[in-house]
Structure formats: structure tokens, C-alpha cells
Design goal:
The protein has helices at about 15-25, 55-60, 65-70, 110-120, 170-175, 240-245, 250-260, 270-275, 315-335, 335-340, 350-385, 395-405, 410, 415-425, 425-440; strands at about 10-15, 30-35, 50, 75, 80-85, 90-95, 110, 130, 135-140, 145-150, 160-165, 180-195, 210, 220-225, 230-235, 250, 280-285, 295, 300. By secondary structure, it is α/β, with parallel strands linked by helices. It has 2 domains: about 10-40 and about 130-180 and about 290-430, FAD/NAD(P)-binding domain (3-Layer(bba) Sandwich), CATH 3.50.50.60; about 45-110 and about 180-285, D-Amino Acid Oxidase, Chain A, domain 2, CATH 3.30.9. The strands form 4 sheets. It has an 8-stranded mixed sheet with strand order 6-5-13-14-15-12-17-16, sandwiched between helices. It has a 6-stranded mixed sheet with strand order 8-2-1-11-19-18. It has a 3-stranded antiparallel sheet with strand order 3-7-4. Helix 11 packs antiparallel against helix 12 (about 395-405). The chain is globular and about 75 Å long. The relative contact order is 0.15. Bound molecules: flavin-adenine dinucleotide. Flavin-adenine dinucleotide binds near residues 16, 39 and 316.
């Protein structure tokens, strides 16, 4: 519990998409001081497109006007948000519906640099400190405070709460949970470039299309807003290729020739776009075990890829991170004394025990279920890429369509409702202890025992 009038000091490790969103969300709370540390000397993002599924649009629009979000994004001209096409013929196999959302709130795609820049426009100035490479965190004062240590700067002052948002290769996760990252067996080749490079290609459509094949190889092509066009191609590659390629590095002319060869028999639009791309970057994909507990000692929480280290899942990785930050924001808000009663309008106190409990409960069940789905889908994909026994692809098409019809519960997950569900689950307990919390600042000592509603 912070003292009356004392600001809650929050440190954020990482100033990427999720670190920036966390800084933005928490800056809407009363009586907090926030400092985020980013290792790069200036704002930097990968040169690749990013899908904004409904979950991301919902989370972003909590703090950023929807028209600003849409000004950097591309939604296509029809209600067919994503189109799946046959790898060879280009025939449409499936169009993903939009589930009754009004057009401004329908999912979109954009460029990662544009997305980070938009977020930074809304983060209060001075919060993110660049050129700060975090080496570790240290719990001090009987675990009631945290100091952040850097490789290249003097250590920070003490924080009440630290959010680790330092991405898939998180040092902080590694400090508390041994690294489990492994090569996933495929490489994503990605590029975003001026749309004028592809304007000469005949038959290119203005939708977002995913060409899919029985072997598991696929290609996404789409406009991504702000006059940019994007490609993402995924190919299963041997471990030796993974060792050779570097994350976010150009594959050069040699690599481009390799890709043209790999897709030469595909629907003519695909090899033509690859030919026209000025430069392509490689992303050898890794993933590790997701954290099933996102909190350490009620003072350190994990968000984004630092918490769920998978390079791309359901086009929703950033959305999961935004939802983590939203859950933290709502949990802090819920336990702020200003939110519960108005007797101390100037001074807001926060209860971190209760905050971290609500945050963890809001996120961990959903994330565990998504991780389970990744395993299920992995098994399902193995089935799908078995060579079809028929000659007209119909068996493979059926398998593909079964898979394609799923996943909406992930892409449209609503962290606000999940938070409310958890809060309501523990409401009786919260009410029972409210006066003790207001009067004495404690009353939630038994939270650790509350593993389920039955325990209340
Ligand atoms: C091929 C591919 C496609 C994807 N497509 C999508 C998509 O379409 N939609 C979607 O929502 N998600 C997608 N994702 C996932 C998405 O990219 C991630 O979930 C998202 O970038 C996570 O953001 P983050 O801020 O947690 O991590 P990052 O974006 O990795 O940011 C981490 C930040 O922390 C900084 N940092 C790291 N270590 C330190 C340190 N020691 N000290 C200080 N700073 C540090 C880094 O410099 C970086 O700025 C995709 C991923 C891949 C690989």
C-alpha cells in the first residue's frame, strides 16, 4: 500500500509497442510517476507490417481517437477483411467475416513504425528514457521496492512497481525463469515498401490476401496504409538456415532469388510481387513457454512478448500485450483509494497486493488457454500438411477450412470484460475487507489463499 499523497512510482523495462502502450495507459491514473527505459538510442521498430485484430483496435481506442488509429491503417474496401486464396490458382477459399462491428472498429493492418509513432504521440513527453540497456532488477527493502540496473547507465532510484515489457528475449524473464526459447521450424520473410513498386502488376487486388498451400508454405499480401504495401511469406526451413539467418536482417539479392524460386509455381501475382520488393528481411521464428504466473513478489509484472514469448500468434501478439497493460491499468484503478471513495480527493493510494492479484487472475487463464490452442493448432497443422490422398485438393481444403473458421475468441478477446469477471468473482471478498483497507491500508493478506471462488 502506498502512503497518503505519495506517488506510485512505476518503472517500465522496454519502450517497444507494449512498453509504450503501458506508459500511455498508466499515465491516465492519478498520482503516479512513470519512467520507461529503452535500450535503443531513439524510438525504433521493425520494418514490417502488423495486423490490428479487433482486440488491438479495442485496446488502442481506449486512449487514442479511432480516427487517428484509422489514419495509419488499411481496412480494405469491402467487408471481407481477410481473404484466403488457393496457392496456385488464386481462387478464394475463405473470407473472414467481421462479426457485426461498425466499420471504424473493424480490424486493420498497419506498419509497425507508424504504430509506434502513433503511440508515442500520446505518451506524455519525457517518460521514455532512451539508451538505457537494462541488465537486471533488484528487490530491496524487504521486497517492497525495486531498483533497475543498467549495462550503460547508473542504477535507477527505487520503484514501487516494475513492468517488464522487454520483448521475446526478455532479460528480466530470464532472470526469474530460465530461458526456454526454441526455433519453431519456420522463417517469416517480411517487407513493407512504397506501393508504387507494385503498381505495374496486373490483377493485383486491394484486399488482404493469404495464399495457402497444402505443404504449409504461405504468403500474405496487402496494402498497409500510408501509401505502403506489405508482404509476409512463411517457409519451413531447416535448423541450419535458422542458424545462418539473422533476425530483422536483409536477405539480399541471393535471398530474393531463393524466394522467387520457392514461389515460382504459385499464382502469378505472388512471384511478381516478390520480384518487385526492394528488400526483404528475415525473421527466424522462436518461441518459449508462456508464463503461467505474470507476477513476482507483488512488485514485478510481465507484459507483452516478455510474458508470452512467441514470435507471432494469430496476428495478435501485440494485442495480447495491450490487453496485459489494460488489465494492469484497471487493476491499479480498482485498488486506488480515489476510485473507491472520495474522502481524499487529492491523495490516491494503491494496494499492490490486490492490484497484482487482480491483474494476474485477469490474464493468466486466458493466456494459458491460448497457449494450449497453439499446441492444438500445431498438431492440427501437422495433419493438414500430410499429402492429400485425392487429386483435386478437396481433402486438404476441408482441413484448411475447419481451421480457418476458428480463432475469433482470440482475435476479439475483451480484456475489460475478463477483468470485470474476475473482479465480480472476488467482489464478496473485496467488500468484506474494504473498510479495513480504507481505514488501515490492509485487509487483503489472505489473497494468496484465494485460488478460486470456492475458497471465498
Ligand atoms: C513474423 C511476425 C509477425 C507478427 N505479426 C503480428 C501481427 O500481425 N499482429 C500482432 O499483434 N503481433 C504480431 N507479431 C507479434 C508482435 O510483433 C509482438 O507481440 C509485439 O512486438 C510485442 O511487443 P513488445 O513491446 O512486447 O516486444 P518488442 O516489440 O520486442 O519490444 C521490446 C522492446 O524492449 C526493448 N528492450 C529489449 N531488451 C531491453 C533491455 N535489456 N533494456 C531496455 N530495453 C530493452 C527493445 O529494444 C524493444 O524496443 C508478429 C511477430 C512476428 C515475429
Amino acid at each position: 500500500m502506498t502512503a497518503d499523497g505519495e506517488q506510485l512510482k512505476v518503472g517500465i523495462v522496454g519502450g517497444g509497442i507494449v512498453g509504450a502502450y503501458t506508459a500511455l495507459a498508466l499515465s491516465h491514473l492519478p498520482n503516479v510517476s512513470i519512467t520507461a527505459y529503452e535500450k535503443s538510442p531513439h524510438p525504433s521498430e521493425l520494418g514490417a507490417w502488423i495486423a490490428l485484430p479487433n482486440q488491438s483496435i479495442d485496446m488502442l481506442s481506449k486512449f487514442i481517437p479511432i480516427e487517428k488509429i484509422n489514419s495509419i491503417a488499411y481496412k480494405g474496401t469491402s467487408d471481407k477483411e481477410y481473404v484466403s486464396r488457393h496457392w496456385k490458382t488464386g481462387e478464394i477459399l475463405y473470407t473472414q467475416p467481421t462479426y457485426n462491428r461498425s466499420k471504424p472498429f473493424v480490424e486493420a493492418r498497419t506498419h509497425r513504425v507508424a504504430l509506434l509513432n502513433l503511440l508515442l504521440e500520446y505518451v506524455p513527453p519525457g517518460i521514455i528514457q532512451y539508451d538505457h540497456k537494462v541488465s537486471e532488477v533488484e528487490f530491496v527493502k524487504n521486497d517492497s521496492k525495486i531498483i533497475i540496473h543498467f549495462e550503460n547507465q547508473p542504477s535507477s532510484s527505487e520503484f514501487d512497481l516494475v513492468v517488464a515489457a522487454d520483448g521475446i528475449y526478455s532479460k528480466i524473464r530470464h532472470q526469474f525463469n530460465p530461458n526456454t526459447l526454441k526455433y519453431r521450424g519456420s522463417v517469416a520473410y517480411r517487407s513493407v515498401f512504397d506501393e508504387s513498386y507494385i503498381s505495374h502488376i496486373e490483377g493485383i487486388s486491394d484486399d488482404t490476401s493469404n495464399w495457402v498451400s497444402p505443404g504449409g508454405k504461405w504468403v500474405f499480401l496487402s496494402l498497409v496504409g500510408l501509401g505502403q504495401y506489405g508482404i509476409v511469406a512463411s517457409i519451413a526451413e531447416p535448423y541450419e538456415t535458422f542458424k545462418k539467418l539473422k533476425w530483422n536482417k536483409s536477405i539480399g539479392d541471393e535471398g530474393k532469388k531463393y524466394l522467387i524460386e520457392a514461389f515460382k509455381d504459385w499464382d502469378a501475382v505472388v512471384p511478381q510481387v516478390i520480384e518487385a520488393v526492394p528488400d526483404i528481411l528475415a525473421f527466424p521464428l522462436e518461441s518459449g513457454n508462456w508464463l503461467h504466473n505474470l507476477v513476482v513478489k507483488e512488485r514485478l509484472v510481465f507484459a507483452g512478448d516478455a510474458a508470452h514469448p512467441t514470435a507471432g500468434a494469430y496476428g495478435s501478439g501485440a494485442g495480447f500485450g495491450f490487453s496485459d497493460a489494460w488489465a494492469l491499468y484497471r487493476s491499479l484503478q480498482e485498488t486506488s483509494s480515489n476510485y473507491w471513495y472520495e474522502s481524499t480527493p487529492q491523495a490516491s493510494k494503491y494496494n499492490l497486493k490486490l492490484t497484482t492479484f487482480l491483474f494476474n487472475e485477469t490474464r493468466r487463464h486466458f493466456l494459458k488457454r491460448v497457449e494450449q490452442q497453439l499446441t492444438i493448432d500445431g498438431l492440427q497443422s501437422k495433419e493438414r500438411i500430410q499429402p492429400p490422398t485425392d487429386t483435386d485438393d478437396s481433402e486438404w481444403r476441408s482441413r484448411y477450412l475447419i481451421k480457418r473458421h476458428g480463432g475469433e475468441w482470440i482475435r476479439s478477446h475483451n480484456a475489460e470484460f475478463e477483468f470485470q469477471k474476475i473482479r465480480d468473482q472476488y467482489l464478496v471478498y473485496l467488500q468484506k475487507n474494504l473498510s479495513s483497507f480504507i481505514e488501515a491500508g490492509h485487509g487483503y493478506e489472505q489473497l494468496d489463499e484465494l485460488k478460486s471462488a470456492e475458497n471465498i
